[in-house]
Amino acid sequence: MIHSLTLSDVLAEHARSRPQVTAVVDGEVRLSYPELDARVTRLARALKGRGVTAGERVLWLGQNSHAVLELLLACSRLGAIFCPANWRQSTDELRFVVEDLAPAVVVWERSEAAAPLATEAWVEDYAALVEEASAAEFPTPATPDPAMPGSPGPDDTVPVLALYTAAFDGRPNAALLSSAALLAHSTSLLVVRQMEPGFTFLNNGPLFHVGTMMFCLATLQIGGTNVFTPSFDADEVCRLVDAEKVTQAFLFGQMIDAVVAANAERKYDLSSLRFVSHSTEWDEMTTPNDSPWCRSKMGGYGQTEVGGMLTFLGLAPGAAGFAGRPSPLVQVRILAADGNEVPSGEVGEICARGKTLFSGYFARPELNAQKSLYGWHHTGDLGRREPDGTITFIGPKLRMIKSGNENVYPAEVERVLKSHPAVADAAVIGVPDERWHQAVKAVVALKAEASAEDLVEHVRTRLASYKKPRHVEIVESIPKKGFTPDYDALDAAHGGGNYPGA
Amino acid sequence: MIHSLTLSDVLAEHARSRPQVTAVVDGEVRLSYPELDARVTRLARALKGRGVTAGERVLWLGQNSHAVLELLLACSRLGAIFCPANWRQSTDELRFVVEDLAPAVVVWERSEAAAPLATEAWVEDYAALVEEASAAEFPTPATPDPAMPGSPGPDDTVPVLALYTAAFDGRPNAALLSSAALLAHSTSLLVVRQMEPGFTFLNNGPLFHVGTMMFCLATLQIGGTNVFTPSFDADEVCRLVDAEKVTQAFLFGQMIDAVVAANAERKYDLSSLRFVSHSTEWDEMTTPNDSPWCRSKMGGYGQTEVGGMLTFLGLAPGAAGFAGRPSPLVQVRILAADGNEVPSGEVGEICARGKTLFSGYFARPELNAQKSLYGWHHTGDLGRREPDGTITFIGPKLRMIKSGNENVYPAEVERVLKSHPAVADAAVIGVPDERWHQAVKAVVALKAEASAEDLVEHVRTRLASYKKPRHVEIVESIPKKGFTPDYDALDAAHGGGNYPGA
Prior knowledge:
Two copies of one chain form a homodimer. Chain A folds into three domains: about 5-290, ANL, N-terminal domain (Rossmann fold, 3-Layer(aba) Sandwich), CATH 3.40.50.12780; about 320-395, Luciferase, Domain 3 (Luciferase, domain 3, Roll), CATH 2.30.38.10; about 405-495, GMP Synthetase, Chain A, domain 3, CATH 3.30.300.30. Chain A is about 30% helix and about 25% strand. Chain A is built from 15 helices and 27 strands. In chain A, the strands form nine sheets. Chain A has a five-stranded mixed sheet with strand order 2-1-10-9-11, with helices on both faces. In chain A, strands 4-3-5-6 form a four-stranded parallel sheet. In chain A, strands 17-18-19-20 form a four-stranded antiparallel sheet. In chain A, strand 14 and strand 15 (about 310) form a beta hairpin. Chain A starts with 6 loop residues before the first helix and ends in an 8-residue tail after the last helix. The interface between A and B is large, with 61 and 61 residues. Chains A, B: InterPro entries: AMP-bd_C, AMP-bd_C_sf, AMP-dep_synth/lig_dom, ANL_N_sf, ATP-dep_AMP-bd_enzyme.
């Protein structure tokens, strides 16, 4: 108990240590840490009255809002699990999540996104819940109430946040993260991002993704200010950065260009943003930041299951591998399918252990056993150690080809093919082979002239010989499923088969 | 297991992630991370051969050396506990430590400091141990060897380091720190000190104190370089800073003046030191650092039992309380003797919970129960929350006076008395009182003229009235035990008694 530190504990400390600091800004709402703490206590009591006890789930249907942070903290106070649903999903997809997670309470916000489900009898209106929580006279409990600050609360190793991840096995899965993992991850961001007291984060990215949530929580941990806006809107981002003196926002690539365009007339002062360099105009509007995180163009590798970022380019100045080096609170191993570590320079699965790791998926015992084989979390992604010890992320390990007893990962061969100047796109499949069980086949779309021999030679000089394609087929375009090749369609069209385990 | 991260795990990761980084420099010895990892593995095997298994203790008798870090890491690999003894102690004091800790192995270094004990039969020579560890052919074990890297090692919650602390209850006690606590504390230093890859720390302070050890471990965690020197020597510090491009050393006050004097002729380039401002000459020789840690003149509050620092002034720019705010990984409460939190502005005991806390004292079950009353670690120190939420450290809570049902802590009243311009030194005791049970009595040494009424009035205007002395006695000097007043002698000489609990 003496070593436990939950998200709720962090809030209880800030209520004492930072009585004058603004914790939350959201439209008209502006709360100091003591005010946020008091609201969370009331909300926890109201949720408890609806049967939300330790281990029960609370689902949020709505866009970004301070309600997301308040519900998460109230669940932490109760030992319950909070899940912000992806509001971009279809109603059918949302319905799957509701059935899968079986939440004790679903809280919705009056918005278009969540409207289709709000007709269900079990959905609670957040505004009504908060109103009731504020108004109700709660009796003082005779025994210590775990929802009360100061009394011994839940342990920090129990899950507190559930985030649904990509449907890599055909359905989305809810990754469970404990307070211990979330706070360890936040601390690693504080280190690499060199976040200081006074940090103000604009939550303009979706909070159902770990990318925004991880900064929201790091800002909470350092006692900074979280500003919420429903979703990305370039004008509103400019207005809020100016008004709230925002230090960082969830902005990348085209979003930055949109902000630059929205502020073309320099109507807003964005100089409080201490940001990575992007373009001349952007660099003029903002203040360049020299933390390792910004110096390294924010490179790294991560996924929800490791709490966010597993490796940081900022920890590896001049790195050979673009994913950089592991966070100070984890270990990484590049493992073969048999659990043995592959030598430096060879491709294997990126596996991890450490303080930031998730606690498995909700209600997926078999998948959890698979993912934690040999005591290491298997990310499902391929990587390689470079001679300088840094890590290169190769691509998702979607399927494996077995040729002459050797493992060939399509993603690795595709990466090399795509580095050929004449190749527009490429996919690699395994076709049945009498002698080798499977042979590597490349399906390639060209943007300039190149012979099959050219392409095979390009791979042969860059990878182990058994990885080079034995067959090459030129096509107009590669069929896709989201961002990845549609391997089932490719197998059907180009004779794929004999995959190991199939 | 998947969430565990021991000191040994950190080393195993660095051996992969930082194959070209120098981990250790000590005289002629210069080891990369893979070399350090290999030495630690051999050392762990040699220690195991001498009966050092999980939970057993290994004691080091010697000055600073890379051996300290190697033995600590080898113990981490075995689940054993490492203790670097205070080599400034008398032989009798060292003998108490040996009997108290009952180590399986005592390792000594051929030095004057450790010589008196080295005649004992059970003392191992470090050089001989390392030689044997390097030469021996260890059979490959049939079952996974927990001393082997890669195999599941001990959990990170078991103690790995024992540091003896002040004899506040009449004998020194060994505070036990786990890998989890040490690495959480290191991470808080990485945050506040903004340590980056490439950090090089000169271990010139004693490694048997948490003050130097905590920087040694933070340097290990970020994958930097630890330079060892037996003890503080100003010339040697200059030489090593220049030769190894040291980023930080364990230097304060007079030590800095000595380094400035040693480098008066600017023989050495000390510009790699990114340090806090101290004097014009020092600031010219070194590079000013603007991390929160340095900006705040390194203020804060800590003790071995919390892993090092509990609060940092660097986390509280413009703070009212000089101890600043808690590290991001702990909670602090100012508690009354009954376990209730005292209101802001009132003095109570500084109590703590969180990731950096120790695991109790070795073999002190009763003391451990006392120190962790109500689920909070009781530091034995008095503090106060200021209106801005920051913390002021008042002084050690050595004893308490009970007057009219109110608690009066001598340290608090003494602090105020000593702020009077005429007071050279002061001590406060409780004397029996018919009406109030005890009355506050001040024993004061003066450096200028002042009346008893002046002194009482000085306290009355600064503290609650019941804390002001009802009796004042002027003396030549205050008897001391170490740095604190000798209260037993004061009670005997000035009529003290009726203490609560006595």
